[in-house]
Amino acid sequence: MSLSHQDVARIARLSRIAVTDAEIDAVSRQLNGILGLIEQMQAVDTDGIEPMAHPQDVSLRLREDVVTEPSRREACQAVAPQVENGLFLVPKVIE
Amino acid sequence: MIHATLKQLSQQLADKQVSAVELATGYLQRIDALNPQLNAFITVDRDKTLLEAAAADARRAAGLAGVLTGVPIAHKDIFCQQGWKTSCGSKMLDNFVSPYDAHVIEQCQAAGLVTLGRTNMDEFAMGSSNENSYYGAVRNPWDLAAIPGGSSGGSAAAVAARLAPAATATDTGGSIRQPASHCGVTGIKPTYGVVSRFGMVAYASSLDQGGVMAQTAEDCALMLSVIAGFDERDSTSLERAREDYSRDLAQPLAGLRVGLPREYFADGLAADVGRIIDNAVSELKKLGAEVVEVSLPNTRLSIPAYYVIAPAEASANLSRFDGVRYGHRASEYKDLVDMYEKSRAEGFGSEVKRRIMVGTYVLSHGYYDAYYIKAQKIRRLIADDFKAAFAGCDVILGPVAPTAAFNLGEKSGDPVQMYLSDIYTLSVNLAGLPAMSVPAGFSDNGRPVGLQIIGNYFAEAKMLNVAHQFQQVTDWHGKAPAL
């Protein structure tokens, strides 16, 4: 199967990456090339194989529900594009 | 001094032949002189480096020094380091000065290692040639027309050109071993979970693993002993006792069973690279190793499986770059979604965008089982191949890449061609195994070629033993480019 320009535009939107009309042809070609490579997997019989997420098959640790990190708001917000009164500013989302 | 190993520098510091400030000054001068043509460093900060060096000298004077206190090294620009720009090779993080240290950096600081600077890399560690950096490609010190390999190309070039005696690096699909091979340095990627990912900018979290590069296996052992260790802030960090990775270096290799996977010597391997690997195997035989043939039948499936799993995880990890809390924000936008889309379109380079979109697609509604779960099943098959192979051998040897370093620009227009060159490295990450690249010779056109040593889980000390013994009878690792 091959992705149409419309499919690619939808994927770009889901990815929150603006793709211009001028770019979409080249992007589609490259994505289709990569998906062609990936399709090789479909020829392999993997029935009954357990998917592998972690090489050691360890389970996630639990810890005590206690405070472990001090507040470092100022240091962390020093690298933010726009802050005010300790809050991150974004364009208005509620009218 | 410039060609000295970590081990030698450590001795010189202990003997008071040189101070940490003198060492740092010497390397900084060399970086000033050579970095303009190599582009191995993104950030150098003389004042910060010399402050760290002076602190290391004070620590030595106070009798509180460790083995490596005062030795200068370089850090891949993927490890968050407080007060240093941590760009990850991306415009997205060009303005990001980290407010905290990665675990790897904390460990290096605790050991008293001095930071020489931050090395160039493919953007967000995505690439095999270093051409995907926002800061421009790194050049291979052996041949300025050649790629250094990627993604840790800056670290490899810096060590090869003797701009640093060692460097940190990361390996998600070969990003330590392939540049180490192409630049003629020794590099080690440990077992997944041995080095904490805390503060290491995430690419594909189930594959990402920190490691090191240096001139020798002995130096890699010293460095790995510093950076490895359990860290509760990384949910996949393994709870294991600290190890001295130097402990087995001197062991003789008599009786060592070396596995050669037939799939790694089939079509596609360049003749000159094949010859170099054969010669390296012969050297190990002289040291008493026995050679057995093994099979890793699913090797070719590592490419599609990797290029599903890595982009899928990348698309999730890189969703954090939204122009809100840190990183690049577009200057003009009409609403919140427009701000996200423009900030990300401007902040990411084309390879990063491609992988995010591939990942978004394979994880999207209706495709998850067909792609991600399928790839995870193939991942299990690949891990099982290694399990079967290691039943009959102690280490597996092979090439790192099908050819020596290719030319800059040669493959940059065709992502699929670039991906295919990762054939001998991806399986190791999918299985979570440790592996190394060790200098083993030069291609017909004079470019370095590395021997890959793959170990079983937690067999780092064994691999380092094999590499060290190999380096006792060869001098490929001691060769340096004329610059």
TrEMBL record, chain A:
It holds the Pfam family GatC. It comes from Vogesella fluminis. Heterotrimer of A, B and C subunits. This is Aspartyl/glutamyl-tRNA(Asn/Gln) amidotransferase subunit C. Belongs to the GatC family. Allows the formation of correctly charged Asn-tRNA(Asn) or Gln-tRNA(Gln) through the transamidation of misacylated Asp-tRNA(Asn) or Glu-tRNA(Gln) in organisms which lack either or both of asparaginyl-tRNA or glutaminyl-tRNA synthetases. The reaction takes place in the presence of glutamine and ATP through an activated phospho-Asp-tRNA(Asn) or phospho-Glu-tRNA(Gln). It is an enzyme of class 6 (ligase). It comes from the Bacteria. It catalyses: L-glutamyl-tRNA(Gln) + L-glutamine + ATP + H2O = L-glutaminyl-tRNA(Gln) + L-glutamate + ADP + phosphate + H(+); L-aspartyl-tRNA(Asn) + L-glutamine + ATP + H2O = L-asparaginyl-tRNA(Asn) + L-glutamate + ADP + phosphate + 2 H(+). InterPro entries: Asp/Glu-ADT_sf_sub_c, GatC. Keywords: ATP-binding, Ligase, Nucleotide-binding, Protein biosynthesis. The keyword Protein biosynthesis applies. The keyword Protein biosynthesis applies. Its EC number is 6.3.5.-.
Automatic annotation (TrEMBL), chain B:
Signal peptide: none annotated. InterPro entries: Amidase (IPR000120), Amidase_CS (IPR020556), Amidase_dom (IPR023631), AS_sf (IPR036928), GatA (IPR004412). It catalyses: L-glutamyl-tRNA(Gln) + L-glutamine + ATP + H2O = L-glutaminyl-tRNA(Gln) + L-glutamate + ADP + phosphate + H(+). It holds the Pfam family Amidase. Transmembrane segments: none annotated. It comes from the Bacteria. PROSITE patterns: AMIDASES (PS00571). Gene3D superfamilies: Amidase signature (AS) domain. The keyword Chloroplast does not apply. The active site is at K76 (charge relay system), S151 (charge relay system), S175 (acyl-ester intermediate). It is an enzyme of class 6 (ligase). Residues 23-464 form the Amidase domain. Heterotrimer of A, B and C subunits. Belongs to the amidase family. GatA subfamily. This is Glutamyl-tRNA(Gln) amidotransferase subunit A. It comes from Vogesella fluminis. The gene is gatA.
